[in-house]
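W.,

You were right to be curious about this one. When I first looked at the sequence I had no strong expectations either way, so I just let the prediction run and decided to look at it fresh. Below is the sequence, 259 residues in total, followed by the output.
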Amino acid sequence: MTGPVIEAVGASFGYAGRPAVDQLDLHVAPGEIVALLGPNGAGKTTTVLGLAGGVGLMAGSVKWKGRPTTASLDQRVRRGISLVREGRTVVKALSVADNLKLVAPVKRSLELFPELEPHLRRRAGVLSGGQQQMLALARALAREPELLMVDELSLGLAPVIVHRLFQALSHARSQGTSVLVVEQQVRQALAIADRGYVLRRGRIYLEGTAAELKAKEADIEGAYLSAENPAGSDAEIAGTGATPHPRNDIKGTSNSALI
């Protein structure tokens, strides 16, 4: 296919009748990695869950391979989406081997992460955080999805583990899988991404190619990913090729409603 694998058009996602992400325009093309950047509370997790069908669509549309969809999370998974949620999503009471068997033959997962082989008989709950994240990603990729969405892949992990996980995402892209990766680690995410979006208080504030966003890396890290989350000006962005999003008037969006 030539169009986006998944696309949000003017989409708003929220909880209890309140939008947490508003007027979202975002797409992921076949075989590309897209980074979704932003501070805690920007709406990144809500965006991923909304695209996956796990959070209600309040306005706009989500398109799967060009067709609007309101399918549930389970239905979208069956149609070719794999989702790795924040927080080591493994079945801790089961062995590593049994975790892998839930989705695909163990051999397929070990081809992706041979590091897991010595731990096949161990309970997943006793693995280190990095090993659990490898297991979660192995399960997701072993399904050979058309689209992989990963939320906070590197959270709390050692740099060497993060590097290994990002290698796996690059390999998945080389095999034709599209990837949307939610990250606060700007430099690492943009090192493997083709394009990126920066979320600020529930709306896309900035978007561009990885190269364009790298040119503003310091501003993104300092202005958008700080705890204070101060606003960067359009004048600062000008000249980099990165595009200030036209819908960056964020008045009326409550931080308390955001994930």
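Here's what jumped out at me. Residues 6-249 form a domain with the Rossmann fold fold (CATH 3.40.50.300). And, maybe more interesting for your project: The mean pLDDT is 86.

Coffee later to discuss?

I.
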